[in-house]
Structures are given as structure tokens and as C-alpha cells.
Amino acid sequence: MILFDRVSKRYPNGREALTQVSFGVESGEMVFLTGRSGAGKSTVLKLVALLERPTRGTVTVNGKSTGSLKARRIPAFRRQIGVVFQDHKLLADRPVFDNVALPLVVAGAALKEIDKRVRAALDQVGLLGKERMLPVELSVGEQQRVGIARAVVSKPPLIIADEPTGNLDPDLALEVMRLLRRFSDVGVTVLVATHDQHIVRELAKREIVLASGEVQDEAADPLPHVVATR
Questions:
Q1: DSSP, res 58
Q2: Which of 14, 85, 149, 207 lies at 20 to 30 Å from 227 by C-alpha?
Q3: 1-80+156-221 falls under which CATH superfamily?
């Protein structure tokens, strides 16, 4: 689903955000991208979502090389990716329904289809019945779940999340991450950038560690292998 092959990214100000980064994420896999602030996690996600293009190397997402994708193909490419943000990025003056429906409206979906998919997405995140509420009327955890519903409403094969639990307390953070894991369990590829090692250990998924724009040795399996003996 995602393949980085010796990818480097240098921004116009001269900062080298990534250097010779190589890794892969299989279809249906949930992977954590970890590292300190400034390690390059957000740059990786921007390259996956084609908000940036690599300076060198190749980024392949769902079989397509982002470096050579023509500008007119980018909107269709991005519709295959659900994005979850740390600060939700909800429209404060629009109800929950309208926030979740936004990707479908932009894609020109029929009203009947929009209504069906929005309600299904809200049901998946446990918010069915709160369609008419404004974001300000929801808890922080519920706002993040609205953001997840918006990310999955188009049924994308890939979800990327940039520090989705950064503003949540530990219990809510774990709840949100378990929700993302549920989508992985049904075949959606999930790539999560996070600095929360407690969550990484709790969910026991593969971890790719970044430091100063380079991939370190991938973290060992957080669960020890147990061998039965007689």
C-alpha cells in the first residue's frame, strides 16, 4: 500500500526533513510512525497525501508513484486517503452531519448516498443521533471521533493520522486509537504518527522510528514471543 524508496525531502528554506528514508506498509496493516518532534513524521504523512513531493527517491501509494502523478489526477488520488488531524479541523459553524459529509459533497455524491454514508460513518464511531449538534457542543473526544468519521465516510483504503491523540487524556487517547485499529481489522491500511509510547505498546503494532529525518532500526515486536515447553 505504501512504499518509500530512498526518499529525501528538502524544503525551499534548505531544511532537509528526510534523508534516504525507506520503508513499506502492507495493505490492511496498522503501523505507528514515531520519533521526537521534528523527526520528520509529519513530512512523511504529507508525502503520502501528496501535499508535498519528494526531492529525491520514490513514494508509491496504492500502486501510484506520487512524484510523477499529474496535477489533474491529484484530487482523485487524495479521495483514496482519509486524514485524521490532531486539532480535528472541524467547521465550527456547521453541524456534525455537514462536517462528516464534506468529502462526499466535494466529490459530487448524490444526496441519498451522502445521507446513507454519513449515518453509517457516525454509527461506526458511536455518534449516531448527534448529527445536528455543533462541534462546540461535543466533548474533545467526540470531536476527534467526528474527525475520524469524516476520514472514513468515503470508504478509503488508507487512513493517515497525524498525532490524533495529542490533545486527549490517556483514556480518551486509547479509545480513539482502538477505534482506528478497528478499521485496520477490516482491511483498511492505517498509518499513525504519534509520540505516545504508551499507546504504541498497548496496541502492539509495528513501529517505524524516525530520528533527524532518518529511519532507525524498526522497533522490536512489543510483545515477547512465548514458546510453550513441556
A1: E
A2: 207
A3: P-loop containing nucleotide triphosphate hydrolases (3.40.50.300)
Contact in structure between 80 and 156 (CB atoms under 8 Å): yes
Instruction: Tell me if 71 sits within 8 A of 37, measured CB to CB.
Output: no
Q: How many CB atoms lie within 10 A of CB 76?
A: 10
Tell me the C-alpha distance between 175 and 164, whole Å: 11
Cβ atoms of 165 and 173 closer than 8 Å: yes
| Continuous H helices in the chain | 41-48, 74-78, 96-106, 111-124, 140-152, 170-185, 197-203
The span from the CA of 103 to the CA of 74, in Å, is 14
Pairing of strands 158-162, 81-84: parallel
Contact 101, 181 (CB under 8 A): no
Spatial distance between the Cα atoms of 75 and 96, rounded to a whole number of angstroms? 24
Give mean pLDDT in consecutive 10-residue pieces for the chain, a chain of 230 residues.
95 93 96 92 95 95 90 91 87 95 93 95 93 94 93 94 86 89 93 92 93 78 40
Going from N- to C-terminal start, the domains of the chain cover: 1-80+156-221, 95-155
